[in-house]
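Predict the 3D structure for this chain.
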Amino acid sequence: MCASHQIWSRARVESVDPVQLASELRLRKRKSLLRFNACGGVNDGKSTLIGCLLCEAKSLFDKQLRAFEADSKRRDARSGELDRAPLLDASGAEREPGLRVEVAYRFFSSERRQFIVADSSGHEHSTRNMVSGASTAELSVIVCDARKGLLSETKRFSQIVALLGIRHAALVVNKMDLVDYSQDAFSKIEAEYRRFAGRLGISEVSCIPVSAIEGDNVVHRGENMPWYVGPTLMALLDSVEIDEARRSDDALRLPVQWVKRQDAKFSSIAGTVVAGSLKAGDAIRVQPSGRTSRVTSIVTSDGDLREASVGQAVTLTLEDELDVARGDMISSADSPAEVADQFEASVIWMSREPLLRGRSYSMRIGPNTVGATISPIKYKIDVDTLARGPAPLLDGNEIGVCNLELDRPIAYDSYATNRDTGGFILVDPATQETLGAGMLHFALRRANNVHWQALDVSPRARAAIKGQKPCALWYTGLSGAGKSAIANLVDRELYRMNRHGYVLDGDNVRHGLNKDLGFTAADRVENIRRIAEVAKLMVDAGLIVSAAFISPFRAERRMARALFEPGEFIEIYVDTPLAVAEQRDPKGLYKKARRGELKNFTGIDSPYECPEQPELVIDTVVSSPERAAAEIVKFLMSRGIFDVE
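Done. Predicted structure below.
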């Protein structure tokens, strides 16, 4: 049994000997570091388990001990013992309803090794915390209640562990004291979990029966389960292989964090070695450019190094002045990373808003940030059965496999090869909120086999013979705002002035190009993606193209704008209040939507996100369509799109 009061007493430190402290710090420098995460369902005893580890490691301050003693008395812990559950900040908070729980990190050490444990909330909708806590872990401790066995959340945690490439999983079957330390109860859970983990491809699995509140098999064996002959949890933490040693044998990978240019002929490159090693004189390759050079020096704050290895932050100087930027990769010249701009990837989606095909996101992979579009979502995975199912979208906490298209090539390794160079997050480009985490599988064949065909007649030449600057006039607003009417009048006036234009109307394209699409959020995204691509081709042909679409989401309008050169995309917000648009209702659509006959109708049961910085705002409450069209033509002339003949 883990004698709580004795543990708390041993952990108290009233004074520190400076000589002893210096000796301890020197010893810690020689210890290896294991990062692991702990996850489990609410009330499975995860926090009590970690609390026991911290107590035994004497990693608590006197002030903390007194606070926890008082808290334990208030909670009336079993048999008058101390309640170790609140030792981590997240652990106490996650039991309180309505509180947003993050991840708590704590440091402790044994005689052999140092540890950083990430304690993730056990709530069903805490995938974000689980991914955050496990993203740098080399081992995952998954806690389950011996009375409940494997639940959906246990399987979801395990699936995330597998996707994140964590090779070691330890299933801790807690509360064995509440099943009378039954070997049969433990064996059934162990057999089921090993089968499930095998299907996930987790390479190393340990199953440990414990009673965290009694201390059995946490740090010491105790006397209640003599039938168990495996390691205690602490023994496993002390002995598990650390990935850093394995990565040292791989080819060099150093993502560039920043470049400092001293003058026109000299610059230094800073980054952290995530695989392999590097010596002065080594031949390297900068990717994705592919240019090569040799290292002349390896600089650190403690002086120059002869060799840099995994985990070291260094600054390099090269023999040649190469064009290197943040996000590039320094690789071995003879074993470079791969380069591509289209991939298959697994995605763990964490946002309340769904992941949609065709929507553009910012993708951060190491220090590199690129634009990424989902096309398509291939399938999602049932966390209980591991079955694959169709997926027009991914909701929060769902896991799926999709294709990614990037706006430029990147250097990468598959996630299975290197978590640092194959793992990424997806971010909202407007709010910078992290929406999902992903793992690159492989580059798509079309990334290398499909190339842009060079044409003899350029877009500039096509525009020149028309005597105009091509552009896309993107009309956005509620149904009934007057977008199509105004676009038609503008196009008619351009025709009268011998200008070359075309109107892409929402209803018209749904008779052909987009007739396979409905009005769900996913279909709306794909509708706008296709129209934006067509509009881009028309602008390349030298036309002034008008796109009159509700296009209710800012993200899709940002995506459309990003396809065009600066000055080619002109967003026109046809501003009409919902009450006015509904009063007009030229097609009777609002009446149908109010009766429930039309689902996902913008303004009624689907949102409209107003433009934030449109080039032009047309108030149709005070402006007639004719006046609005005249204002737009005048605006185009002021922008130099064409001159009056």
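DSSP finds 20 helices and 29 strands in the chain.
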